[in-house]
Task: structure prediction
Amino acid sequence: MITDFEKLKNECEKCRNCELFKTRTNVVFGKGNPNAKVMFIGEGPGENEDLKGEPFIGRGGVLLDKYLSSIDLDRNKNIYIANIVKCRPPKNRDPLPAEQEECIKWLREQVKIIKPKIIVCLGRVAAQRLISPDFKVTVEHGKFFEKGGILFMGTFHPAALLRNPNNKPAALEDFLSLRDKLNTL
Ligand code: URA
Result:
């Protein structure tokens, strides 16, 4: 039987709603358990993700998996990972507001089906889009914000942690707060 989630994925993989379809190798729809309580949302696929069709599989993804496993989360078991835009922006530039606006429709449909209790925004682009347009990761990381029955939290993007390892302890604190919050749900 084809589930609604698989139907959505099939539709999304044919998307030509913005110019990014012209330069993509693969649509990166998302990865994980569609029954998960927690979703992690990044910005958009990079080169490795575009080539393989999976989110966060480069060096940043390896780091993300370490933080996840420190609180017993695993992309193959109990979380779902996706991005604000599903196609790689050329040269990894920030996705344009119009591209985000178009693509976030797919994410909204994913959220409707998954019905997560918590959404963790990885980095500025996701946090500004999903939490608040003036969100500052360095100031507001690790805090929970309730919106429409879902708790949102912003934390450092794994690529930013690779560039600036000084923020790694703060990122670990955010993951520990996430674990505590999950234990209360
Ligand atoms: N960076 C992101 O924001 N998402 C990915 O999937 C990979 C890198």
In short: The chain is about 45% helix and 15% strand. Residues 5-182 form a domain with the Uracil-DNA Glycosylase, subunit E fold (CATH 3.40.470.10). The mean pLDDT is 97. The helical segments are 4-12, 47-52, 59-70, 97-114, 124-130, 137-140, 158-163, 168-184.
